[in-house]
Design goal:
Helix content: 40-55%
Largest sheet: 2 strands, parallel
Number of strands: 2
Structural class: mainly alpha
Radius of gyration: 16 Å
């Protein structure tokens, strides 16, 4: 079986991945970034964010070092992002917080 990451071994930078852009990436582009990282032998850090301040810290640090990073929202972190006053009985706060967090990151990235 051919190495699915072979096409990325000759690239000098993740910016060389076709379609790569600053900001939020999804789908095949995100998958290609993972394959690039595997081909180059490093992992991308993922940070569980619980509010705009932690999102900002991750975005600023990634920009400062010139490397990508994952922003993730756990169930609890998402509920915290939505606010303690939002009921999480049926995971409403977790869902609302994850959606709000994703919109926030897209807007400021």
């Amino acid at each position: 079986m051919a190495d699915p990451c072979a096409e990325f071994k000759g690239m000098n930078s993740f910016w060389d991945i076709p379609g790569m852009k600053a900001g939020v990436i999804t789908g095949d582009l995100a998958w290609n970034l993972l394959k690039y990282c595997k081909a180059k032998g490093f992992a991308l850090p993922a940070f569980n964010c619980t509010g705009s301040s932690t999102c900002n810290a991750v975005l600023e640090a990634a920009a400062k070092i010139g490397m990508p990073a994952y922003i993730q929202f756990s169930e609890g972190g998402s509920a915290f992002f939505a606010g303690k006053a939002v009921d999480n009985k049926n995971k409403e706060a977790s869902i609302l917080g994850a959606v709000a967090g994703a919109h926030y990151v897209r807007a400021v990235a």
